[in-house]
Specification:
Blueprint: H1 3-13, E1 17-26, E2 36-39, E3 44-46, H2 51-65, E4 73-78, E5 95-103, E6 108-112, H3 116-125, E7 131-136, H4 144-151, E8 157-162, E9 179-182, H5 187-198, E10 206-208, H6 212-224, H7 230-233, E11 236-237, H8 250-273
Parallel strand pairs: 6-7, 6-9, 7-8, 9-10, 10-11
Antiparallel strand pairs: 1-2, 1-5, 2-3, 4-5
Helix pairs in contact: 3-8, 5-6
Length: 282
């Protein structure tokens, strides 16, 4: 597996890791500058030359993975028999600098319903470093022409899902901790998604757009027809966004929801620094 694919795998799993790169080489060394190794909690991909260099780099990478706020750092190695080495001697005769770059877990958000509000929200979130899933049962909401505005300055990795029959099936494809926002054009579709989201292990927060009257009906159905208890139903946040922002224009709602999501991301990061499992619900 290439290092690019390994980084993508860690990102898709929402797992932390470290990218290790041979930054400089002086004299003889096992690998040239630019050689890369990706280190996860239990796996590695690629190689920076094996031996003491690689073993020490892996040890340090795993220390960074376990630390609350890791920063990139350089490690220097002299390759001669006079240097005390933790994992054996490498006598190539040169010197190597290795750069360790932590790979953070980026947030993941799934928007179900890319109507007026959904598209405005996607426009904001697309400019953040996150994984963004756009889901809709209507093909005209997901055309290249309509979504083209997202790619002009997108930072997020955008995944488009056209689901004409059962959009709730996408829930099973989402990475652990993905935050879900339900805002489709159809209340029946919203209700099915709420029920399915509550039955899906490992999701992050669940938000539902709509009025108090809509939520009253949904709560009753989720309890009587869905069989969910009160604590489970209370996982769904509605209305979504920041209550103090009262405007009803799509862009205003989108800004409010995005701002509230940012607060959720910050809480996730704080929990991760404390050693917990952010944004996950059974």
């Amino acid at each position: 597996m290439t290092w690019v694919a390994a980084v993508a795998r860690l990102r898709a799993r929402r797992e932390t890791g470290v990218l290790v790169t041979v930054a400089t080489v002086r004299g003889h060394a096992p690998r040239k500058a630019g050689a890369k190794l990706v280190v996860g909690r239990t796996e590695t991909w690629g190689s920076i030359g094996g031996g003491n260099i690689e073993a020490v780099a892996v040890d340090r990478a795993r220390e960074l993975i376990g630390s609350p706020d890791p920063e990139p750092e350089l490690m220097d190695f002299a390759l001669n028999d006079k240097v005390t080495a933790r994992h054996g001697v490498q006598c190539c005769g040169g010197a190597v600098s290795v750069l360790l770059e932590p790979l953070p877990v980026v947030p993941a958000v799934a928007i179900f319903g890319i109507g007026h509000v959904g598209l405005e929200l996607a426009r904001i979130l697309a400019r953040l470093e996150l994984d963004l899933h756009l889901v809709d049962s209507r093909p005209d909401m997901l055309t290249d022409e309509r979504l083209g505005v997202l790619s002009e300055d997108a930072v997020a990795q955008i995944h488009v899902h056209h689901t004409p029959l059962l959009p709730e099936e996408v829930l099973e494809e989402l990475a652990p901790g993905t935050h879900v926002l339900i805002m489709t054009h159809d209340h029946a579709e919203d209700a099915a998604l709420c029920d399915a989201a509550l039955r899906t292990d490992g999701l992050g927060s669940i938000g539902l757009i709509g009025s108090a009257a809509k939520w009253t009906r949904f709560r009753h159905r989720l309890s009587t027809e869905g069989g969910h208890d009160t604590a489970t139903i209370d996982r769904i946040k509605t209305p979504i966004g920041i209550p103090e922002i009262a405007g009803k224009e799509p862009a205003v709602i989108a800004v409010s929801v995005a701002a509230d999501l940012l607060r959720t991301f910050e809480a996730d990061a704080a929990e991760r620094r404390a050693g917990g499992r952010p944004g996950l619900a059974a």
